[in-house]
Amino acid sequence: MENTEFIQLYNEFKEEQHDDFHFQLLSEMIAIEEIRDNKVILRAQNDFSRDNFAARYLVSLQKKLLQKTEDPLIQITLDREQTEKSVLSPKPTFDPLPATSLHSQEFQFGSSSRSADNVNSKLSFLNYIEGIHNRWAVAVAKALSRERNDSYNPFFIWGNVGLGKTHLLHAIANGCKERHQKVLYTNAETFFNNFVQAIKTSKQDYFRKKYRNIDVLLFDDIHDLKKKNIAQEELYYIFEHFRGEGKQLVFTCDRPPHELKEFTERLISRLKSGTNVSIGVPSYEVRLAILESKGAELGLLLPRDVLEFLAENICDTVRDLHGALKKIHIFTELLGQDISISMASQELQEFFGQQQKPLLVRSIQSHVAAHYNLELVDVLGKRRNANIALARQIAMYISRTMTPLSTTELGREFNRDHATILAGCRKIEKMQKTDQKFAGELDSLKRKLQVTC
To answer: Do you know which HAMAP family this protein is assigned to (predicted)?
Structure first.
């Protein structure tokens, strides 16, 4: 076989595996060393790449070669130069120091408020605004930051982007550090990059020490590990180690565990085994409180009418509220402009969502009614049958957490006063805490509404 023929076939084979994460990872550690007659010698950087490439792809590659030649022999050898380097130069990429010093260069951040464990000391419970949309998540977070509780392990927080999940992770971390626990904040991207680098340099042991020699692991955006099965497997074993040692795991995600497609079943099972809660859209009152609190941090003294205008029109995420305030800060500090509703309306358009409040609430009411085999008139009417009353309260609660309307505004949508709305929301919130099956059903309903509304 000519060299060019094999290289062409090998490139075709690589192209056929372009969606295969395992192949993309391993192929970077495999090189063509020699092609002679019907014999091909591939060179692997380490045992991991050699054994896994042979187990997963050798037979398929041989079948590909049979298209051009009879009985091809493919041999995979170790890269002796790489092996000798690892023996002669044992200094690892991952610093094998005691647990307090395990967070080396790949974990460094630009912010001076971050320590070696990646925890931002500025993000605490003191500056985290609580409301009905996140009350349960905050309650559990505060509890586990005070003391260990197996019921909250793992603690799984899910919700759309920009709603404060990451802030809550750092708040938990800072609370645990006050109890002198060793913590580490990471996210899926950092975890994956660390893991790939460990494999390439044959330093898996140092990688595992880094992620295991701690008391609390706070793992952000786990959904970004989709399709990365090898990294998922490594996380599973870390998970098992933590559970066996009685250590705490906290995850954030953009969806509940059972909706994590392209994840291994056993990892999903572990993620579902503790406490999982959702964070919804903050209400008008909470958005107003966030604006006041964050504005004070920035030294902004905004007129009340401007704050109310922003709270009414920036409804989607907490991140957008912060972004709008930072832009206002630039205008006041650098340009010396006074802030008015007119100016905010003109300059902050990118933060304003397309809100259709009555239609959104009506959609929620209709979806909840249909889910419980009721008519819309039942939800909006006066009948107090147990099933109708429960559906009505669920619609109230979802409207409270998924729309920017105040309780007074929602009262008008449900033909009731604001006290009735508050009572209904509190009942559903309490049921979530005591009935896991009901909490799962409610989360599923909210997810469907986010897709269809």
So the answer is: DnaA_bact
